[in-house]
Amino acid sequence: MARNLPYTVKESSPNGLVSNWTQWCPSNGFMPDKNKGPYGSYGAIRAYMWAGMTDPATPGAHAVLDHMLGMALFLRNHKYPPTTTNVISRAGQGQGPVGFSAALLPYLRALGATHRFQAQELLMKDGRQPDGLYGKPTRYYDQNLALFALGFLDYAFHFSSKGNLEVSWQ
């Protein structure tokens, strides 16, 4: 249930970092999936974006963000989000694509991390191609992350505190 989400995020996100896969173990509760490894990457980056898009009046919204501070802390000392993060050791590997920067924009804004938001926003602007697509080469996943994140930031849509999608054109 939605009311358990803050607990689930807290238990399954060691060091405030989200893993791609989570499992439930009766003896340990929620945790990164042992079979898939304690890694956050393409499967996890969306969790930061959706947490940042959550209406602040939604029960548990602030707690979820509080339990996901690891990526914002990582960006204090790194220009780019990592392609892969070990959620246990906090080690980041690689330079995340432009879509990762896009996905982190709503999250960083929700946290009030203005300087980190502006740094990722600049990476987005630098990654925009003349045809309006993002990244070099342009990739489908990056375009989708940019579409959702920038649409949200441009107030084309938002979510109500009950989770309903509300669009600006209606």
Short note summarizing the structure:
The chain has 170 residues and is an alpha+beta fold. Helices cover 41% and strands 12% of the residues.
Describe this structure in words.
With 170 residues, the chain is of the alpha+beta class. It has one domain: Alpha/alpha barrel (Glycosyltransferase), CATH 1.50.10.10. It has seven helices and seven strands. The strands form three sheets. A three-stranded antiparallel sheet has the order 3-4-5, with no helix packed on it. A two-stranded antiparallel sheet has the order 1-2. α2 packs parallel to α5 and α5 runs parallel beside α7. The longest helix is centred in the middle third of the chain and has 14 residues. It is globular and about 55 Å long. 36% of the residues are buried. The mean pLDDT is 93.
Query: Helix tally?
Result: 7
**CATH topology assignment:** Glycosyltransferase
The 3D shape can be described as: globular
Instruction: Return the domain count.
Output: 1
Low-confidence stretches: none
Topology, pairings included?
Layout: H1 5-12, E1 22-25, E2 29-32, E3 39-40, H2 45-53, H3 61-66, H4 70-74, E4 84-86, E5 92-93, H5 98-111, H6 114-126, H7 140-153, E6 157-159, E7 165-167
Antiparallel strand pairs: 1-2, 3-4, 4-5, 6-7
